[in-house]
Amino acid sequence: MTASATTDGWLLIALFLLILTLATRPLGGYLKRVFEGERTWLSIVLGPVERGFYKLAGVRSNEDQTWIRYATAMLVFSLGGYLLLFAIQQLQGWLPLNPQGYGALTGDLSLNTAVSFVTNTNWQSYGGESTMSHGTQMFGLAVQNFLSAATGIALAIALIRGFAREKGKGLGNFWVDMTRATLYVLLPLSILLSLFLVWQGTPQNFIGATEATTLEGAKQLIAQGPVASQVAIKMLGTNGGGFFNANAAHPFENPTALANFVQMLAIFLISAALTNTFGRMVKNELQGWAIYSAMAVLFLAGAGASFWAESAGNPAFASMGIDQTASLIQSGGNMEGKEARFGIAASTLFATVTTDASCGAVNSMHDSFTPLGGAVPLVNIMLGEVVFGGVGSGLYGMLLFAIVALFIAGLMVGRTPEYLGKKIEAREIKLTVLSILCMPLALLGFLAVASVSPVALQGLANAGPHGFSEMLYAYTSAVGNNGSAFAGLTANTPFWNLTLAAAMMIGRFAVIVPMLAVAGSLVAKSKSPPTSGSFPTDGPLFIGLLVAIVVIVGGLTYFPALALGPVVEHLAMLAGSTF
Question: pTM of the prediction?
Fold first, then answer.
């Protein structure tokens, strides 16, 4: 790779982080006003709509729910969304807006897809343009893109209230928080992004397909549909479910380099802003910037490592001398599986962003990355997707790690740990550890079963450590509610559909319920004023400790699995072997 191209790549990463940082504070302030019920510039239009929803649904907007009632409302709402989406897929052949004439999906695929979109995972074991009707895409998948994302934002706000309030019982009202997240945040931003994407060339229509004649004279059907509206919310809501099978590598979903850059910003935008919302709601913005800084450090480490690995290419091609074309491509870096219009820098940055967040959108095939380049997206998800993370889930995940970090700091100095004036005691630590450890337990458990199951191994496209990485990535993506795929795994079978669905549910709800219990415990506590012996949680020492805890917990837990996959594949690559 040329020096100028390498420099341009580093500048792209720096520009991305700069713009994200500049957007964090204004949007964070707006989110704070929305969830504290203050007047915003959209209130004059959306206020009556919001109140109308509450009246129709019988919701008392001033009712404060305990953590148990908040969790129950969230679970009931998620169950209703699952049943509705499952029914839409089963009745697809009889529902309107089906110009392609698609029939019902199989039961196991419908179950997998319904669970996937309700849990904000958006794993797809199917090709969107060849399976889902326009009606299913719009009223099933896109609707859940809004609602699952709004649920994540509401849950983060509930945990923030646990730190911000004292001697209380309630964490807010789930129905109010979810409604406001949809009306005031996701819907306006999605409209703006949709219009931008249409301007860039993304279709937004109800055409089934357009027949085109190729240069060779052959006939080709080009799928179209309401693409821009779904792409917008899949990015802003960190959903990731693609309208097309090629996802963000498809020119209709991601037509230009500018669209690619804006979509990456959209993935991180709300998650980054919520760190500032956290600081404002606890009345100390530096606390929010400390969380943001820890996320930014981890993001830069991952983006830099992936860009470096892909820029270096695969040295095995140079020594093999069997494919001059491949050797030429690798001499400029690893372009296999990447779009020429994006190049290595924009592709690796996208891969890092989408796996730092719980967004399954991809603009390149991670299966074609070098072993270390492909390990970065894998590790990003394993860390709990707290590097900005999914909308809401990234913040509450990082705050759980902050509790663990302060507990360890308290052990080292012999003091009861405190965070924002709240004492962290045995109950909070037990619940936090339970929330964090459910992910590796499910991931490694399902992976162990798949590794010795003949029916699971039939779906692998590669042997050796690369094939192992395909399975490892699939369960990591499912448990982490990411949804991106390594590619190369044929997952539309009953075994994969059912086990991945189970992994998604554990990764979503086994984290949320203990987290809400932590919030319920914290909200009842009184705040202690800081003293000279208090551990400062808004400075470099805390940021470094938090980063170390995230890396150690993720690294030590998953290192044996990583050693069997990308690590051994990298060592084999250096020795001239490929898989």
Answer: 0.94
